Amino acid sequence: MTKKGIYAKDSEFWAEVNKKLNIPDDAYESKQAREQAECEQLLLEKKAKEQAEKERLLANKKEIHSKNRKDWKITVFELPESDIFGNKFVAECTKEPDLQ
Q1: Hey, where are the domains in the chain?
Q2: What is the pTM (predicted TM-score) of this model?
């Protein structure tokens, strides 16, 4: 290839190498797309796992204190364990009629 004036930094060189190795022209793009899809899938799985953990903690909460103030009902709950942010307590505020 050097006799033809084609060197490793030339795109013609890599096109010829890919042709000899039976590598498709869009191999890099398809690899990037595949890696991006895998990354997005992992992110979705992580978010789903975090959401399931949050729902589990909220399902097992215990009411500690409740107080009425200016048409609002404020209730403090204790979670069975801290969430991923270290929060152990949750407050819920409701106003009549069922406006949260």
Answers
A1: 7-59, 61-100
A2: 0.55
